[in-house]
């Protein structure tokens, strides 16, 4: 395959006196380009009392422009073999554009049209709200989703994570076009923007095109994101449904002081506890030794704004209490006794062997680099973490695990039936 690779690097773009960071990688292996606009603070954290607002805004942004509507706008994209989509999460809302390098200029021009004149009409909003309400109704019978929702409502009470990011039937029905327009004006701005750019393209030319596309955006103000802490109260909530098995979701706080220094330790601990599938403590005890569930997972997750330990399993109704008790026992023994030298070596072998495969494609590498940048870490943090993992000693890992007594404070959300 012809072409060459260039390492990821940070660039800058100045518009209206605002310095916009750009994560950039030139990659000439394939004649493709990838551009993402990420607006920090435009996710569910900014919904306020209008639950699901960010989600509805992003859905409406997928309905084309006011002038063309969704059908004609989509046709324009298809004619150029371009993909343009908008999505929102807890903290961010993002526009993602990709296609053949020869269509880069056309793609950015269409992106500009969407930014300047999104299809914020009552007809489009009614359609999006109806689709959202249907999805909410469908999730009523998704018991994994229901258990996860209950767990988050307990674990993150008092934060944006207490409520579903997609909103409720009541909150979605109340969202107005004025709220949509106000949210867009307030949160889609230059001071909140992070750009991700990569592919077979020259930075100077794409920078000029992006500057032209973005100059209509207001300077605005960046949203200051507050850390979200998990509740350390041990709670259990059961939701009774007409189901043939029990859906058990569980979680606890994870106190992280320095994400950069602790990431290698968190990865290894998470892998051994329940993130690795077969061979993990949770699956070995719950499935292999007791036969209580087909699958059982528990992972430690941490970002610069939140950290927690969460997991889930499904079991028969008659085994619900035993499975819940066993999960608590596995976590307590894990914290008190730590891991074995064999488990550490298996974790090292897997993490060092598989991690590079997760960054094979351009979008994967750019996505990983963005995650690191967003969390205040170096762009090449992956390399640093792998080096640290390779050098970890059993004592270092076990001292770290034993210092996190808080993950024993498990809350359980269970969707089950009377038995």
From TrEMBL:
Q: Which Gene3D superfamilies match?
A: Metalloenzyme, LuxS/M16 peptidase-like (3.30.830.10)
Domain Peptidase M16 C-terminal, residue spans: 174-350
InterPro entries (UniProt xref): Metalloenz_LuxS/M16, MPP/UQCRC_Complex, Peptidase_M16_C
Gene Ontology molecular function: any one: metal ion binding
Q: In its UniProt entry, what is this protein called? A: Peptidase M16
Q: Which organism is it from?
A: Helicobacter ganmani
Question: According to the entry, what is the taxonomic lineage of the organism?
Answer: Bacteria, Pseudomonadati, Campylobacterota, Epsilonproteobacteria, Campylobacterales
